[in-house]
Amino acid sequence: MEFQDNYFESEVIEGFFVTSMMKRSWAAQLEILKDVDSICRMHSISYYADAGTLLGAVRHRGFIPWDDDLDICMMRDDYNRFIAVAEKELQKIAGGYCLRNIRTDDSYTELFTRIINSREINFKPDFLNKYHGCPYGMGIDLFVMDYVPSSAEESEFLYLVLNTIDDLIVSVLDGKVDGDKLVEQTGMIEEMLHVRIDYNRPWLNQMLRLEESLFSMYSGQEAEEITVMPLWIKNKQYKWQKSWYDRTESLKFDRFMVPVPAMYDCVLWKKFGDYMNNVKSAGMHDYPIFRKQETALVQAIGKNPYVYTFSEEDQKVLSKNTLKQRVKQFLKLIGNAHDQLKNRSKDIQETVDILTNYQEAAIMIGTLLEEKTGEGSQSVRSLENFCELIYRMHEAVLNQNKSEMEALLEMIKSQPELIESKIREEIELRYEVAFLPYHASLWEHLESIWEAAQSDRDCIAYVIPIPYFYKKPDGTAGELQNEINEFPHYVSVIRYDTFDFSSHDLDVIYIQNPYDEYDSAMSVHPFFYSPNLKQYACQLVYIPPYFVKEIDEKDERAVANIRYSCAVPGVIHADKVVVQSEKMRQIYIDILTDFAGGKMRAQWEEKILGMGSPKMDKRTEKKDLIHLPEQWMSVLKKQDGNLKKVLLYGTDISVLFHYEGKMLEKMKRVLELFWDNCEEIALIWIPFGRKNQIVEKKYEKIWAAYHELVTQYEKQGWGILGTSDHINEAIQLCDGYYGDRGYAAQACLDRMVPVMLQDVQY
C-alpha cells in the first residue's frame, strides 16, 4: 500500500489534532487489513467494516480523526473458516503475524480475535518498511456475529445463562470471588449446562470457551436477528436484522475500499443512534493505542527516539543579548537624563550615583560599538563627548557650581537625540523580525503578524522559508525540500542559504515547527532546531501552525494528542508561545507542569500566552469555476451572469432501501421544491451508490422507480446530476447542504457550510 510522504505529517482533521505517529499507526493497520482482505478473497470469506471503522467509512471516508484502531466483523461460519487458515496464510505474507484469542492464548480474556503484526516493538528495516515506519506491534480487532433465536423463550434463557457465566467471570477478574465460593458457583453452572470444568487447567479460559460455544448455538434458520454476543449480554437491545447483511457494498476508507453491509444506514442507526453526532468515546483501550508500548520502550532502552525528554539543561539555553538591544536599553536610560538630573540636583550623593551609572553605561556601549564600527566612528565620538559632559557635571555637582551645572544640563538635554542619530547612521536600530515558515500552506498562521510588522516603519520583517525533509520508514532523512516558490506573490521571501543570521541583530524569530528531531514524519534542517536559533535572536516565539476546536480538559483523547505538540523542544526553548485561547493556554500549562515538574509551573504561566490564533480570517473566496464540467455552467449562472446560490443535495442508496417508498416520495418533494426555485438556486444532486448496484428481488420495484427519478432529473437539465467523483468540487461550490447523513454532510460541517439533514417524515 502506497502513501505519500506528507500523509504522515501531524495535522488538524475536522478540528482534531492528529499526530504523526498516529498517522503511521493508521497506515500500519491498513497494511494489516490489506493482508486480511487478501486471505478472505482467497478463501471466499465475507467480512465487514464494523463499529468505528464502519462509521468512519460512511461519515469520514477513513479513520474517525479521534479513533485509533480498526474493527471488522464476520458471521460465525466465516469466522471459523478464517481462524482455521489465517495464521498460516498471514505467516506467508510476513513472519511476525499472529492471532490472539481464547484458543491461542490461555491468558487472553476477550471474546474477539486480535490480528497482530508483532508481539514486540520492532525496529528492523523490513518491518518498518512494510508497516510505514510504525515500530509498534499493531493489529485489528475481529468481532463475531451470531444468531439471536427468534423464540422469545429461548432468547431469554440464552440471555440469562450467558449473564450468569459472564457475571462470574467479571467477579473473578475483579478479585471478588475465589476459593470455595468459586467452586460452588462453577458447580451450579456445570449442573445447569451438563458440562465439567477441569480445575487442573486454566479456569478462566474454560469459562470463556464455554461462553463462546453458547454464542454459536443457533443457526440462521432459527433466527431473524444477529448480534455480537459479548455486547448483547450487556444490552439486550443490541441486535439487528440479519437481512441487513445480505448484500455487501464497498466504501472508500482512506486508501482502501472496505466491504460494508448494504444496509449500513440501518446498522449505524442501531449502533450509534444519530451517527452524525460526533462523540469522542473512550473506547476499550488506552489512547493512543500504542501508549503502553511507548512506556515499555522507555523502560527497555531508556528513551523513546520519537518523543522528547525534558532536560533542565535545555532551560539554560539563553537567547542572544544583541548590541542593538543593549543600545536601545542605553538610549532609554539616558532619554530623560536632563529631567532626572534637574530633579535630583539638591541631593549630591544621589546625583553622583546617577552620573556614575550614565558614565559606566556609555563606556560599555562605546566599547561594543567600537568593535562593530571601528575606532573613531561618529557614534563612538558622540559617546565620548557625552562621557566628557557627564564628567564635567560630576565635578560641578561635587563643587556645587550651580551656574556650571545649569549650563551642562542644557548641553546634556540634546545628547540622547544626537547620540541616537549618530548610532543609527552606522548600525541598524530598527526592530528586526524573522519569520521561518516551512510549509507555504501554513503561512496563513503567521501572515497577520507579518502584515503588522510590514506596516510598522520602525520594523524590518524577513520571511525566510526554511528547508525540511521527510523521514524514511527507518527514520533517516529523505531529500531536502524548500517551498520558497509556493508563497503568495505579495510576500517577499529570502533564500535561507543567503541570509547570514550571525550578521543580523534579530529581535524576534517566529517558528512554526517545534519538534526539532522528535517527529516521526519529518524534520526541518538541523540548523533551524530551536536551541540553535536562540543564539541569533533576543526572543524565540513559537506560533502553532494549526487551529483546533476548543478542547474540554476532560476530553482525554484531544488532550493526549495536544501533549505530543506541546511537550516538545520548540515549546521548551521558546521565550514565548502564542496559543489560540485562554483555555488552550491552561491546557498547555497543565501538560508542561506534568511534563517538567510542578516547580516550573510559574515559568510556563509566564511563557504561554492565550492571545488567540494569528491565522487570518480568510477573505471570501471566489468560487473556482475553471475546472468544472461544461454542462454545470449553464445551471450555476443566472441570466445576468451572476452565480446562483448552490445547494448540495446528497442521497444514499442505503437510506432508500431502509425507508423504501417513503424516502422515494421525500426525494420527489425535494426535487419539486428546487425546481420551483431553480432561477435563484442551483441544485447539485449526488445520489451516492447509484451505480453498479446488485439489487435483491424485494428491492427491484423501488430501485426501478428510483432509477427513473434520477434519469428524469438528468434529462430535464434544470439541475446538476453529479457522482461521487464530483463530491469535492460540489462541497467547495455549495452554500448549503441538504440530504442524508454521511461523508458529504460531515465535510460540509467541517467547512462550516450550513447543513440540514433530511428527515423522511417531513
Automatic annotation (TrEMBL):
Pfam families, alphabetized: LicD
Domain of life, source organism: Bacteria
Limits of the LicD/FKTN/FKRP nucleotidyltransferase domain: 40-273
Residues annotated as transmembrane: none
InterPro entries: LicD/FKTN/FKRP_NTP_transf (IPR007074), LPS_cholinephosphotransferase (IPR052942)
Any single GO BP term: glycoprotein metabolic process
PANTHER family (UniProt xref): LIPOPOLYSACCHARIDE CHOLINEPHOSPHOTRANSFERASE LICD
Protein name: LicD/FKTN/FKRP nucleotidyltransferase domain-containing protein
Organism: Eubacterium plexicaudatum ASF492
